[in-house]
UniProtKB/TrEMBL annotation:
This is Membrane protein. Residues 12-133 form the DUF2231 domain. It comes from Sphingomonas endophytica. It holds the Pfam family DUF2231. InterPro entries: DUF2231_TM.
Length: 140
């Protein structure tokens, strides 16, 4: 008979809710930056700045929870390191976006948006991908 067992590491539901914001908002900021580069409409730069700020606000507690999970040896350090990379790149990107619209979204702002988006998507994959893993053992 096969009995399902839990995945080796699962995040707390509150952690998952907090993680959902940076996973959605950092790529939204990247999309707004790309749209701004194509249209030169200043409101897209403002939208990216607000998306980055929201991702940082909700990403900080998610980062803290991921560090606590890694310290308790419930998770690997790859997840908190990727989340920290996304958060630091997002913070620098927030400072970059605080300049005027023409200076904020250029090569620097776009690269920071790419780094933060890629890192947070990889962190989300690591954190939430483990939830779908079901290990089956033979029970005798």
């Amino acid at each position: 008979m096969l009995a399902p067992t839990a995945a080796p590491w699962r995040i707390h539901p509150l952690h998952g809710v907090l993680l959902a914001f940076p996973v959605a908002l950092f790529p939204a900021a990247l999309a707004a930056d790309l749209t701004y580069l194509g249209s030169a409409e200043m409101q897209w730069s403002n939208m990216a700045a607000w998306a980055i700020t929201g991702a940082l606000v909700f990403g900080a507690p998610a980062l803290a929870l991921s560090v606590f999970a890694a310290l308790r040896r419930r998770a690997t350090w790859a997840y908190p390191l990727l989340l920290a990379l996304a958060w630091v790149a997002g913070l620098v990107n927030a400072f970059q976006h605080s300049q005027d619209a023409w200076a904020s979204v250029g090569i620097g702002g776009l690269l920071l948006s790419l780094v933060s988006s890629g890192a947070v998507l990889a962190a989300g994959w690591l954190a939430l991908g483990a939830r779908s893993v079901v290990v089956r053992e033979t029970v005798r």
